[in-house]
Design a protein that fits this description.
single chain, alpha+beta, Arc Repressor Mutant, subunit A, Aminopeptidase, seven-stranded mixed β-sheet, two-stranded antiparallel ribbon, 9 strands
């Protein structure tokens, strides 16, 4: 179709539906050719029952990858056609089973002849085609199982939007943003504590003038994320990675990851060998980000924060 030439790969779903619709229409005509009164959509259910015998609707749904309501509807249609009998009691008398009737069993032998001809016809198409669609479908299904199309599109969206992110050094004009972004997430999950107010009200005095650093993430020139390195008076660690916050409006744009990488590089340039951080496991996206950045969980250190229930470190 000209439409698919114009749209390109973004119409993959539409093109597959178009092809599936054509194949289904052809399948209906093939059943007519063999004088079989049968709907193509019944075939997966029919095949499972013909090959494996009685099953529950749940078992059939799991085997063919359909929803239970979808299978239930097909079973009702096949029952009305006299091909299936349901509500059969299993040996444990607790499960309702579905099986083929005598008419259904007889039809399965007739359909096998038809299937042989179809198999040969499809093999002819495979020989004529430059690409083996059957093998390609199996490969694509495996790739989608490993990572869905939605996940892949999300990744591409992040990559594109991250190009509009710029990481800059802290300036006094960002003080209110630094405070509000952190206050927002802290107040959402916990309560502001004394140590929070010290760092957020006076970031230059409490962080920068003591040898620390603050970075700000700009998205389309608007401050949307912040992160700090707080100098530690500790023999084990050089800096604490702290006060990382991203505006809810900018989440999903890879800003946390970009800030984390930038703050690590800043720490290295300042001669740091090891970073430390404190957090809470209720903040699952943040914890996942820290692990992705290379931090590892540790235990046994004291903390000024009541909300802290996980401590992590990173060797640079």
């Amino acid at each position: 179709m000209d439409l698919f030439e114009k749209t390109g790969k973004i119409a993959l779903g539409s093109r597959l539906r178009y092809m599936a619709s054509n194949v289904t229409d052809e399948a209906a005509k093939i059943y007519e050719l063999y004088n079989v009164d049968f709907s193509p959509k019944w075939f997966p259910v029919f095949f499972v029952l013909a090959e494996e015998g009685s099953k529950t609707i749940t078992e059939i749904a799991g085997e063919i990858g359909h929803s239970q309501p979808s299978v239930t509807k097909i079973i009702k249609e096949m029952t009305a056609a006299g091909l299936v009998q349901d509500n059969l009691k299993s040996e444990d008398k607790r499960r309702n089973m579905v099986d083929l009737t005598e008419k259904g069993t007889a039809l399965s032998s007739q359909i096998r002849i038809q299937c042989t001809d179809i198999d040969h016809a499809i093999n002819e198409i495979i020989k004529e085609a430059e690409h083996n669609l059957w093998e390609a479908l199996a490969e694509w299904e495996l790739l989608f199982e490993q990572k869905s199309l939605l996940e892949r599109v999300k990744e591409q969206k992040k990559i594109r939007e991250s190009k509009n992110v710029e990481i800059v050094k802290y300036e006094p004009k960002y003080q209110s943003v630094f405070k509000e972004l952190n206050k927002e997430w802290i107040s959402t999950y916990f309560e502001m504590e004394e140590a929070d107010y010290k760092a957020l009200d006076n970031p230059e005095e409490y962080i920068i003038n003591k040898g620390g650093k603050i970075l700000v993430a700009l998205y389309n020139n608007q401050p949307m994320g912040v992160c700090a390195l707080i100098k530690m008076d500790d023999p084990d660690y050089d800096f604490e990675l702290a006060k990382m916050a991203v505006s809810p409006e900018a989440q999903g744009k890879n800003i946390g990851w970009l800030l984390g990488q930038a703050i690590q590089q800043a720490a290295i340039e300042m001669g740091a060998k090891k970073l430390y951080l404190e957090s809470n496991t209720v903040l699952k996206p943040a914890i996942n980000l820290y692990y992705k950045l290379g931090f590892k969980k540790i235990t046994g250190r004291s903390t000024p924060y009541q909300r802290c229930n996980i401590q992590m470190e990173l060797t640079l």
